[in-house]
Amino acid sequence: GQQLNQSPQSMFIQEGEDVSMNCTSSSIFNTWLWYKQDPGEGPVLLIALYKAGELTSNGRLTAQFGITRKDSFLNISASIPSDVGIYFCAGVSSGTYKYIFGTGTRLKVLA
Amino acid sequence: GAVVSQHPSRVICKSGTSVKIECRSLDFQATTMFWYRQFPKQSLMLMATSNEGSKATYEQGVEKDKFLINHASLTLSTLTVTSAHPEDSSFYICSARGTGVGYGYTFGSGTRLTVV
């Protein structure tokens, strides 16, 4: 099935550092979402973006919907140990309601 | 609000048997439910979309006779893996979309299926 390109694939960072990850697609999406998944659990929604150029924050997390509608970015500021997990982007095309997930970014935070 | 319960969380079954996984929306009516499969260290791959009262729509490459989906009510969808084989071992996750809800669907906690 189709997947979105997400980078980096994995990151090892020190506690307190900022983190950036992005997701790119060859197709246009009308909605971008960012999820976090802990081991053995389902994904949990972090941020939803509905408009090109939109910049939305949720605590230390900030995500942007790219102007071209083919990409999105997620930033985490001042990382803490509980930020560890796998982060997935997901794009949604208008009318289908189906998600296309990114390949995931595995984040590890060193205390 | 918007809680999705998935059961069981883990199941081990013998090769050749069938396994049923339930996905329930606890505090909202789910007009559409989605079933995903996730292999270790990989992303979620959509298997099928089910709308209440109608047949599920399967993604290309997913065998509809092997993965039976029933969405008989607005709060319950089931996925039955028939004649399971070891290669069906995976993490299965459902998500649910309610009426009047944006695109931020709620996911269940997943079911780890191991076929021995």
Defining key terms:
heterodimer; A: 111 residues; mainly beta; 6-stranded mixed sheet; 0% helix; 53% strand; globular; B: 116 residues; 7-stranded mixed sheet; 4-stranded antiparallel sheet
Describe this protein's structure:
The complex is a heterodimer of chains A (about 110) and B (about 120). With about 110 residues, chain A is mainly β. Chain A has no helices and eleven strands. In chain A, the strands form two sheets. In chain A, strands 2, 4, 5, 9, 10 and 11 form a six-stranded mixed sheet that branches. Chain A is globular. Chain A is about 0% helix and about 55% strand. By secondary structure, chain B is mainly β. In chain B, strand 7 and strand 8 form a beta hairpin. Chain B starts with a strand and ends with a strand. The relative contact order of chain B is 0.33. The mean pLDDT of chain B is about 90. The interface of A and B includes residues 50 and 99 of A.
Q: Quick gist of this model?
A:
The complex is a heterodimer of chains A (111) and B (116). Chain A is an all-beta fold and 111 residues long. Helices cover 0% and strands 53% of the residues of chain A.
User: Could you name the ranges of chain B where pLDDT drops below 50 across 5 or more consecutive residues?
Assistant: none
Number of helices of chain A: 0
Please provide the ordered H/E string of secondary-structure elements of chain A: EEEEEEEEEEE
First-last Cα distance of chain B: 37 Å
Largest sheet of chain A: 6 strands, mixed
Q: Pairing-aware structural class of the strands and helices of chain B?
A: mainly beta
Rg of chain B, rounded, reads 13 Å
The H-and-E topology of chain B, N to C, reads as EEEEEEEEEEE
Biggest sheet architecture of chain B: 7 strands, mixed
Class by helix and strand content of chain A?
A: mainly beta
Shape of chain B: globular
Fraction in helix of chain A: under 10%
For the largest interface, the chains and their residue counts are: A-B, 24 and 28 residues
